[in-house]
């Protein structure tokens, strides 16, 4: 991998020899054969992600916001648009009034000690959009989420 060139935001874990590259609505995951040797427990990464996913799908705003760190940031495509729990709560408050809002995880990949990448379909009664989310987790909370939306 030392000879490969990647453009965009990169997440590299040298111990696990994994890399995720986020650029222009594309996420590339690279891992070696020995990556899944079980040296690191991924349960807290999945637990934080699952907590926010379940809260999203039952429209429980406070549980959803609680899955995020108090200083968490959420960016969409190329733009940081939410910073901290208050902004997250404010942004999602009206959306959670839509009873048909839901998220289906099509695929997920955990790697390193703090990263989860999810391919999702997020929808309501009127629309569905594909999203790739890159979530960084520390201390059982999501500290950063980068959401890439698929455009037609």
Care to describe what's here?
With 152 residues, the protein is of the alpha+beta class. It is built from three helices and nine strands, in the order E-E-E-H-H-E-E-H-E-E-E-E. It has helices at 43-57, 61-66, 85-95, and strands at residues 9-13, 18-23, 26-31, 68-76, 79-83, 102-111, 115-123, 128-138, 141-149. The chain has a single domain (41-149), classed as Roll (Nuclear Transport Factor 2, Chain: A), CATH 3.10.450.
SS element count, helices: 3
Fraction of residues in helices? 10-25%
CATH topology: Nuclear Transport Factor 2, Chain: A
Q: Which series of helices and strands comes N to C?
A: EEEHHEEHEEEE
Arrangement of strands in the largest sheet: 5-4-9-8-7-6
Domain module tally: 1
Describe the SSE topology:
Blueprint: E1 9-13, E2 18-23, E3 26-31, H1 43-57, H2 61-66, E4 68-76, E5 79-83, H3 85-95, E6 102-111, E7 115-123, E8 128-138, E9 141-149
Parallel strand pairs: 4-9
Antiparallel strand pairs: 1-2, 2-3, 4-5, 6-7, 7-8, 8-9
Quick summary:
The protein is an alpha+beta fold. Helix content is 21%, strand content 46%. The protein is globular and about 35 Å long.
């Amino acid at each position: 991998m030392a000879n490969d060139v990647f453009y965009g935001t990169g997440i590299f874990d040298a111990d696990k020899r994994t890399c995720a590259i986020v650029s222009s609505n594309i996420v590339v995951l690279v891992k070696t054969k020995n990556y899944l040797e079980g040296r690191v427990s991924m349960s807290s990464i999945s637990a934080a992600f699952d907590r926010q996913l379940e809260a999203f799908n039952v429209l429980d705003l406070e549980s959803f916001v609680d899955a995020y760190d108090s200083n968490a940031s959420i960016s969409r495509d190329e733009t940081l648009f939410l910073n901290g729990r208050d902004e997250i709560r404010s942004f999602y408050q009206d959306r959670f009034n839509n009873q048909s809002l839901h998220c289906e995880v099509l695929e997920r990949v955990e790697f390193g000690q703090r990263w989860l990448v999810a391919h999702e379909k997020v929808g309501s009664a009127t629309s569905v959009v594909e999203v790739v989310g890159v979530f960084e987790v520390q201390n059982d909370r999501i500290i950063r989420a980068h959401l890439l939306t698929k455009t037609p």
